[in-house]
Amino acid sequence: GRSLACACQDGSDHPVLVYEIPSGSLRGEFQGHFGIVYSLSWNKSDTLLLTASSDGTARIWDIQKFGESQIRLLPHPGFVYT
């Protein structure tokens, strides 16, 4: 694909940022995690992004819908590392 996803910590927020490659321009971001994001994974068609976090959730995001809530929330009783 032509996108790079990364997670960061900005104060108490933990946004997931998606950049266009090779220009490096920010395509958009997803908000929703309340803890450190440990893992990110694309689906085969690069249209969905799965994130796993220390907030005890895995979330699936539609990269055509920046600024919206995740399309699926997968709760877990502990940290999700992968």
TrEMBL record:
Annotated Pfam families: WD40 (PF00400)
GO CC field: ciliary basal body
One record GO biological process: motile cilium assembly
Keywords (A to Z) from UniProt: Repeat, WD repeat
Entries under PROSITE patterns matching the protein: WD_REPEATS_1, WD_REPEATS_2, WD_REPEATS_REGION
InterPro entries, per the entry: Cilium-Associated_Jouberin (IPR052803), WD40/YVTN_repeat-like_dom_sf (IPR015943), WD40_repeat_CS (IPR019775), WD40_repeat_dom_sf (IPR036322), WD40_rpt (IPR001680)
Source organism superkingdom: Eukaryota
SMART domains: WD40
Swiss-Prot/TrEMBL WD repeat ranges: 30-64
Annotated protein name in UniProt: Uncharacterized protein
Organism of this sequence: Arion vulgaris
